[in-house]
## 1
Amino acid sequence: MIELIVVVTILGLLASVVAPNLDGLSPKYRLRSGARTIGQNISWARSLGGGVGGEYVIQYNLSENTFTIVLPPQEDEDPDLEIDERQTMGTITVPDGIEISRIMHPDGGSEESGVVDILLDEYGTTGSHIVLLTNEENNSIAIYFEAIIGSIQYMPEDEAEFPRW
């Protein structure tokens, strides 16, 4: 009986290590994984802004396929400190084969290159945007962040648009 319990435990540990790594095997699942990573980090930055207070920034670098959560200025720093001079929580790279192809703004504008800064204020009223990800098979997914209610929605690129009230 003890041997059986040990074998089941070992198999469970192996499955818990191997199963999460299967996301990277298929371009479709890498795309979904990249979208989930971005969505979770947007939600996290928004909750930090509301909980801790201060203006957090999500900084997308479209040419390098990375994004960074930029912290608000510290108490001993100038409150008007430039975004590029602030501390960050580290840069996150989207999975291989995935590209941040475009950032869409509520005013109808969009950006397809360079560095894009999305401000998330402490009241949760700013920062709505849509991130479009594309993989090497030209599949795409849109991550829609609605700042006021704090929701993240995942949808096909052709359905990605801001609601018109």
## 2
Amino acid sequence: MKGLSFLIALFLSSLINAEITHFERGVGLYEQRGKDAVGLRANNDYIDQSIHQFLKAMKVPESELDAGVYLLKCYYYKGKFIAENDDEKKENFNEGKFLGERLIDRYPGSAAAHYWYLVNLGSWSEIYGILSAAKEGVANTMRKLSNKIIDIDKNYSDGGGYFMLGAVHFKSPYIPFLLSWPSDEEALKYLSIAYETGESTPNQTVYLARALYKNGQTQKAISLLSSLLEEEISESNKLEDIDQHNIAKEQLKEWE
């Protein structure tokens, strides 16, 4: 009887699993992305399998957008925490860049598609070279689409549009006659709004602290990073949080 019960349970389990969509499988795998990581190097199995599921899910019209957004997250994560060199990073961020361009063209009203496209585009530009990317118009694109995210949903990703707008002001070089709008004051303004919108994230905290320091508010910047280091690392964003904590530690050493 015990053997029969086990077979029945196994059969019922297979039926339940059969009903799980590719999208749901992909989400489940993505949520395990930090599992079995060594330092800041993630186990690629979870992300690779997640990408495989989301590519299938994108073929279903009802899940195309949501699966596409998760794919953008996967490509960013793979480039950030799995790629071993700049060429591999570029390859993954390029995947996100090209997919993002398709998604925002197909779904112009999606804040998520625009936001995660910019995450990949900004990461790509850092590897490619901020100055070179700025000369090719990347900074202008990021500024324009950051404002669009704010127009669509100012609360998306805890003020993600404001964060992107502040970050592009902060990181973009001033180039006379080509890129004259980057402003330290505007960076501080928008990064502050992002920090105060929804739940402040470690990434937002680090950027805001840097903007405060750049605008002469040294003690406030140091206090902000010190407070961040007292916070616990989240399980859901484990490697992302560890990365920002490490940046905060190095930044404090440099300032102090």
## 3
Amino acid sequence: MKRCATCLSILLLLMPLLQGCIYTNTIVPLDKDLQETQLGNRTGRSSYQSILWMVAWGDAGTQAAARDGGITTLQCADMEILSILFGLYYKETTIVYGN
């Protein structure tokens, strides 16, 4: 019984280190100054993906995202990250806003 309690205690201590390891889907801003951010009328997206940490493809650059949305003047940008099973599948998307 004491061994089971010790294993449970160790597991509980390690749980904060494992957050987001199985599934993560977050959006973070790429702007530093958000006080006067304007989103614009158009949105463009570009992504890259990888599988098994070995194969990757795509273009997640701001230029590709702007081209996708027909944007000539960028006003704001975000990054969306999707990770499944410790990064076995990983997708990073750049989202740009502008006119």
